[in-house]
């Protein structure tokens, strides 16, 4: 990725100028394995890996797995797959915060020995009450004065399993009157008799994020710990821990915050995405309507398009809402370059070209994607399908598609004229009869004849049947969806399944993941549910770009 110049890089440049971090720049991407990655994580991945690339440094992949109740190996696997797919590598620098549980425990003991941490018996509720408010200083815990010896003994017994969940915690001893509530003796270890997906039953105490994160960064010799804005208030604690555990200020990691990505018509928090999955509103984490990386991949987004989106949105320090049209613009630009063109009729009606010889079939050459020399050949014969919406029986004057007595050009083929229509007993049109102008094909004597409309079509003989899934946004556009009850904003029409679509024969062997431009319709991708003879396509995005620069 090529990130635009931004305040994070300015800060790094300053650090380097001031002689800090002489051993090079080192970042990390630290997902908690409690769900699948989403497009917001893609932004963080691009910033962390992109920054390391820019400074010829390194970026670690670190699983922040300190909360065993919500974590699972399924997520560990999907996260690796998604980061790789986005185009980033970590070589041998994949770590787990749980690998540091012993070291983190030792750091906690060291804090106790330095008189900077104590075991507290207050309940979670009491701790909250004692903490005070923005306008009111907190109250010191009655356990704050415990001796170092007693604290060491109690902490060891916490580790051994002598106490029940919630009975005791370890707290940093900082300042109950601090204007920053995070600094009012934060909890740094809690008891949780829960099996961990990697350490099993070895531990029944687990470090809190605010304790584990700076120390994991320091252990890995990370220089710049880039995170989202909601951690700004935690930065003094980050620094306090490193300072009080004796890490040198010229080399210890530094936290820098940026604005998280929010997208219109989407929610992004994993908790909400999980709710969508568990309630059955979507088919899974990789449902093509989901803002997950696996959802976008299945839908037909390319890694390049997501990376160029991350470059385009830039890195800023104030929160904002990005129009999803911008992401669609990026995938459209990318697929325009890489997707083969084919014709597909989503809602077919049969057309018979009555003066075209029966049994004849010719192969018409058709253009492929821009700059591609590989042409394809589309079989043309007497019976074809066109889009039902491309015909109108009583059409207004400005309707330039097919109508009684009207003429249109069939893409790559001839000009046809509608002579009559056939209806069933209920009055539905079931067939359109036309004649064709045999000289109007490319190279023919009337090829230059102007008609207003050009239609896509597929030959009846040899075309493929397909299911096509059309997607709309999962959520109605509500700027506050992250705050309000987003389940009320669900768009009931986010999925439309068309069962009887007809596709040009060229797509017969297309494997899942293959992308096409269906002429006049948009970009489509073969779904993982697809099989030969049973094709399934996802609409990635329509052709019309609604993103205003
Ligand atoms: P969520 O609230 O969705 O669960 P999280 O921040 O708890 O997100 P983590 O797995 O801890 O999820 O995130 C890993 C990294 O990705 C963190 O550094 C986090 O700041 C960053 N990140 C998460 N969501 C976004 C977002 N919407 N935009 C940018 N970065 C994000
Ligand atoms: Mg997190
Ligand atoms: Mg979270």
TrEMBL record:
It comes from the Bacteria. Residues 454-527 form the tRNA synthetases class I (E and Q) anti-codon binding domain. It is an enzyme of class 6 (ligase). Residues 339-437 form the Glutamyl/glutaminyl-tRNA synthetase class Ib anti-codon binding domain. A motif ('HIGH' region) lies at residues 31-41. PROSITE patterns: AA_TRNA_LIGASE_I (PS00178). Residues 25-336 form the Glutamyl/glutaminyl-tRNA synthetase class Ib catalytic domain. Belongs to the class-I aminoacyl-tRNA synthetase family. Keywords: Aminoacyl-tRNA synthetase, ATP-binding, Cytoplasm, Ligase, Nucleotide-binding, Protein biosynthesis. Coiled coil: none annotated. ATP binds at residues 32-34, 38-44, 228, 260-261, 268-270. It catalyses: tRNA(Gln) + L-glutamine + ATP = L-glutaminyl-tRNA(Gln) + AMP + diphosphate. Gene3D superfamilies: Glutamyl-trna Synthetase, Domain 2, Glutamyl-tRNA Synthetase, Domain 3, HUPs, Ribosomal Protein L25, Chain P. GO terms for molecular function: glutamine-tRNA ligase activity. Its main location: cytoplasm. This is Glutamine--tRNA ligase. Its EC number is 6.1.1.18. A motif ('KMSKS' region) lies at residues 267-271.
């Amino acid at each position: 990725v090529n990130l635009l110049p931004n305040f994070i890089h300015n800060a790094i440049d300053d650090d380097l100028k001031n002689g800090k971090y002489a051993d090079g720049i080192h970042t990390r991407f630290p997902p908690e394995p409690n769900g699948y990655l989403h497009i917001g994580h893609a932004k963080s991945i691009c910033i962390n890996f992109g920054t390391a690339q820019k400074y010829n440094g390194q970026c670690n992949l670190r699983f922040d797995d300190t909360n065993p109740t919500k974590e699972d190996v399924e997520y560990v696997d999907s996260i690796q797959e998604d980061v790789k797919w986005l185009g980033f590598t970590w070589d041998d620098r994949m770590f787990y915060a749980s690998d540091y549980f012993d070291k983190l425990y030792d750091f906690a003991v060291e804090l106790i020995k330095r008189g900077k941490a104590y075991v507290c018996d207050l309940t979670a509720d009491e701790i909250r009450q004692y903490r005070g408010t923005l306008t009111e200083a907190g109250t010191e815990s009655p356990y704050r004065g415990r001796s170092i010896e007693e604290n060491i003994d109690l902490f060891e017994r916490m580790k051994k399993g002598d106490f029940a969940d919630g009975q005791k915690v370890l707290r940093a001893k900082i300042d109950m009157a601090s204007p920053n509530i995070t600094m009012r003796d934060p909890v740094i270890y809690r008891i949780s008799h829960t099996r961990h997906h990697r350490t099993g039953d070895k531990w029944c105490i687990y470090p809190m994020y605010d304790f584990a994160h700076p120390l994991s960064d320091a252990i890995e010799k990370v220089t710049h710990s880039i995170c989202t804005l909601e951690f700004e208030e935690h930065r003094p604690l980050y620094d306090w821990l490193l300072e009080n555990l004796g890490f040198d200020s010229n080399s210890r990691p530094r936290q820098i915050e940026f604005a998280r990505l929010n997208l219109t018509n989407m929610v992004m928090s994993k908790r909400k995405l999980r709710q969508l999955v568990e309630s059955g509103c979507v088919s899974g984490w990789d449902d093509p309507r989901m803002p997950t990386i696996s959802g976008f991949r299945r839908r037909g987004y390319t890694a390049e398009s997501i990376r160029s989106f991350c470059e385009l949105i830039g890195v800023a320090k104030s929160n904002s809402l990005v129009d999803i049209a911008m992401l669609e613009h990026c995938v459209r630009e990318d697929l325009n370059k890489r997707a083969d063109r084919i014709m597909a009729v989503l809602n077919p009606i049969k057309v018979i070209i009555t003066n075209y010889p029966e049994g004849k079939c010719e192969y018409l050459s058709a253009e492929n994607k821009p700059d591609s020399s590989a042409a394809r050949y589309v079989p043309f014969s007497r019976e074809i399908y066109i889009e039902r919406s491309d015909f109108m029986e009583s059409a207004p004057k400005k309707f330039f598609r097919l109508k009684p007595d009207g003429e249109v050009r069939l893409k790559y083929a001839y000009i046809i004229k509608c002579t009559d229509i056939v209806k069933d007993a209920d009055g539905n049109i079931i067939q359109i009869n036309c004649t064709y102008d045999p000289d109007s094909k490319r190279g023919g004597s009337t090829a230059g004849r102007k008609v207003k409309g050009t239609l896509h079509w597929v030959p009846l003989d040899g075309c493929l049947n397909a299911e096509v899934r059309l997607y709309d946004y999962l959520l109605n556009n509500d700027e506050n969806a992250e705050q309000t009850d987003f389940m009320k904003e669900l768009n009931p029409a986010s999925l439309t399944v068309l069962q009887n679509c007809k596709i040009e024969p060229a797509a017969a062997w297309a494997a899942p993941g293959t992308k096409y431009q269906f002429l006049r319709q948009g970009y489509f991708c073969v779904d993982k549910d697809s099989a030969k003879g049973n094709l399934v396509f996802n609409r990635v995005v329509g052709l019309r770009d609604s993103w205003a620069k």
